[in-house]
Amino acid sequence: MSWFDSGLDMKEMLSIEEKALVAQLKRGNCLAFTVIYKKYARQAYILSFKYLCNKTLAEDAVQNLFMKLWLKREDLQEDIPINHLLFTMLKNDLLNILRDSKTNIFVLEDCLEMLNYIDGGDVEEQELEQEQLELIKHVVDKLSPQRKKIFFMKISGKYSNQEIADVLGLSVNTIKFQYSQSLKQIKFWIREAATLCLLLL
């Protein structure tokens, strides 16, 4: 009997199918695990990268999430939606990563597309994760006008330190220092903002 002639609506049918998947997963069924992974891994990666701004850390977070799911499969409760469980587990893992000051969140190379868009580049806004774009824009806008100008000139790849120094009438050492401090400030503010956003979810 198919879902459309069973007297159940699509939402109810999906719920039943998901419970069956969880039941199979609890028994160690690898196919059930693969189905769940394919359904939710991409969403987990997008959420992880949104707050970590580091592709490698985001990939590791997804891998750890599903490894934990497999290791704890026998303790799963079939009446708890698997997406809710995965989200809660991932949220806690991301908060732990953000609270560890040694983790390297915000890898510049991973975020250049968004930064170039903020600086008036040609990247289409709809191609970006809107919430992540707003998060990064928020922290970059907190830089002082001079640091912000130096930062965008540096990441554009069009200017050397000497050329930036000549344009702004500053020393090369000042340019290097201001750029370094800009990166430190951005990392700190992203860590704070991302932690707050996750706590409010």
Automatic annotation (TrEMBL):
One GO MF term: sigma factor activity
Coiled coil: none
InterPro entries attached to this UniProt entry: RNA_pol_sigma-70-like, RNA_pol_sigma-70_dom, RNA_pol_sigma70_r2, RNA_pol_sigma70_r4_t2, RNA_pol_sigma_r2, RNA_pol_sigma_r3/r4-like, WH-like_DNA-bd_sf
UniProt record, GO biological process: DNA-templated transcription initiation
Record-annotated RNA polymerase sigma-70 region domain positions: 36-102
Domain RNA polymerase sigma factor 70 region 4 type: 134-186
Keywords tagged on the record: Sigma factor, Transcription, Transcription regulation
Protein family (similarity comment): Belongs to the sigma-70 factor family. ECF subfamily.
Full protein name: RNA polymerase sigma factor, sigma-70 family
Organism: Bacteroides pyogenes F0041
